[in-house]
Structure prediction request, 449 residues.
Amino acid sequence: MVIYDFSNLMEENIGEHGLSSLFFKEKEDLLQTVDRQIKEQARLGELGFMQLPFDQPEIDKIKRLAAAARGKWENLLVLGIGGSSLGAMALHQALNHPFYNLLPSEKREGCPRVFFADNVDPELINGILESIDIKRTLILVISKSGKTAETLAQFLLCLDHIKKVGDPHQQIVIITDPEKGPLREIVKEGFSSFSVPPNVGGRYSVLSPVGLVPAALLGVDIDALLAGAQAMSKRCETLENPAYLFALTHYLLMQKGKVIHVMFPYAYALRGIADWWRQLWAESLGKEGKGPTPVKAIGVTDQHSQLQLYMEGPYDKVITFLTVKNYRTEVNIPSFFSDFTDIAYLGGHTFNQLIQAEQLGTEAALTKTGRANAKIILDQIDAFSLGALFYGLELATVCCGFLMDINPLNQPGVELGKRYTQALMGKSGFTTEKEEIENWFLKRPLYQV
Ligand code: PA5
Prediction:
């Protein structure tokens, strides 16, 4: 079960910085309008992510790949970036052991160790290749467009390494558009592949093979994940649902100048969810001169880093705690030094109580000082809850985009930088961009010290 608690966004609890009782008057109309728009876009096939919980034509093939990989591969190397990586990383971090790669194979139930190469920093890619035996590595190349420079460069490098010692057709699996793009052409040379539905955008694709294939290979129960998403989809059939309310409260608070949105998980395992959400919220909602700035903070670590700003800085933030009722383990705090009041009170409690007290204490402090804060509550971290959370936050993003009157499905702003990069790397057809870089950018006035 996923609950969205927005008590501390209301004027009654945080005073003038909260939402007034007008909220309840506006809510119905705004949600009805946006719900109609979502249903219409879904009917037109624009919101493919809404079908993913129910429609998975390749699920058996995914399970067969995962079953065959157990005990066979020592490593899984995932090549992908942005929406082609963050979802799988979030799933792995949330559902697997915090030091998964250090566990012996039997504790991983035969699943491979995992490396995510979501950057082209030569030190990272070289570091990965130095840490694995490429002959014993399965490689997932994930790119919906099949054109992303970062992923393709890594693919070329890995192909070169494998050709020297192994069999590329056995070791490389490609996840891309079912028909378009260079990677789909390359699949025809005899590579295994999975398809990303054309109407599912990268950052909305975690519940497609983009997230499901790596997750299954890493031992995640993908049926439970999809069941969680189905349950959330069902809840979202009525207007009063967590996704719409998350979107609406954030949208209305943006009108009150709260344009920085913080996702603050109080579970180390959920740090990847905050990374995933940050991309989803930023790339979907930041356009046409509008958009919130999403920030990731980690409880309790960032209480000792960001919290001062959240407590006493400008009233421009909405903080969402992401909390867990039941952690998967309980750890006692031993009792020593009973003469020291600064230490003695800790003994006899658990770390579970401490992290929950810190979350509640921080929430109370923010509320007392009139700081807008909300809470997403998970019963526990499991595949079912995460499925519900992913689906709910994706729907919330689309809902918020429609309320803001922008298109939450595109990302025109990332194109220009890509074109300049391609021009700099000598791709044909980019003469104008190359000239602009040479004649304007590299000649602009410089101020350096
Ligand atoms: O959300 C998006 O569309 C992007 O973040 C993409 O996922 C990212 O750019 C990677 O694209 P691709 O999967 O085509 O390699």
